[in-house]
Amino acid sequence: MQGFHHRGEFDPPEWANNLRNYYWFIRVEGRDKAKRRKYYRRIEKEKLRLVELGYDPVIVIALCRYLSTLNPKSAIALKELLSESNHQLSLNLIYR
User: Fold this and answer.
1) pLDDT, tens digit, 9 for 90 and up, residues 14-31
2) pTM for the whole structure
3) What b/e readout covers 25-64, taking b as 16+ CB neighbours within 10 angstroms?
4) What is the C-alpha to C-alpha distance for residues 45 and 66, in angstroms, rounded to an integer?
């Protein structure tokens, strides 16, 4: 990638585009409490939808933490979680 890239910036996975958009609206419409609350309700529904689709709830929470603050420390934690293999999706088929 060319150009300026903030060291804490992390592009979330494709499945998190809705969450990224909702948090962006919260940052833009921060003073309007009604719009802010509306987007927080949408975030809760989207988080539930992602967990029901089979994404790890720990990863979804870490992603929301990163998107709400855009903190480099939370970006590092999110990268580590996404790089780990998900043991929940693997099957251990050892017969004794």
Assistant:
1) 999 999 999 999 988 878
2) 0.73
3) ebeeeeeeeeebeebeebbeebbeebeeeebbeebbebbb
4) 18
